[in-house]
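Continuing the batch. This is chain 6 of the set; chains 1 through 5 are on the previous pages. Same settings as before, nothing changed between runs. Recording input and output for traceability.
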Amino acid sequence: MILSDFDLWNYIRTGRLRIDPFTEEIVRENGVDLRIGNSIGRLKRTGRVLDTRSRDTREFYEIEEGENFIIMPHEHVLLHTVEYLSLPRDLMAFVNLRSSFARVGLTLPPTIVDAHFQGQLTIELVGGEFPVRLYANDRFIHLVFAKLSSEVDKAYQGKYQGQRGVKLPSFD
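Output for chain 6:
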């Protein structure tokens, strides 16, 4: 079941869903909008092979801090949200790019937020046909929450739990 704004307000007011910092205007008809953080992870162009059994992927990324970022055509980048989320054991979320950004050719691979996840989200974004400037603190993704039929027995406790800022991939 997809949650309406009425249901979301119930989860937020009772503290079962936590979003920090929280402002009322992020709650939409059937989800919440989250904002771009102030750092970006750019994939480096290289002929080196990334070994998925390696524990360190830092050499394949450049992390930039700033108030705005230009996404080049077909460039893959990692962005993070300003907001830190804490989901209960009976909610998960689908991550969608806000339509205005999709309408200029930006894309986002299918992404979900697992039940009981806590942290800022790191999101992959792919550039379109022309450069696009993005600004920190602009709303850029929309989370649609789904209530699970029951609480999960095995709550998310993965390697990205508690992340802040851009979190690079980890294959351990």
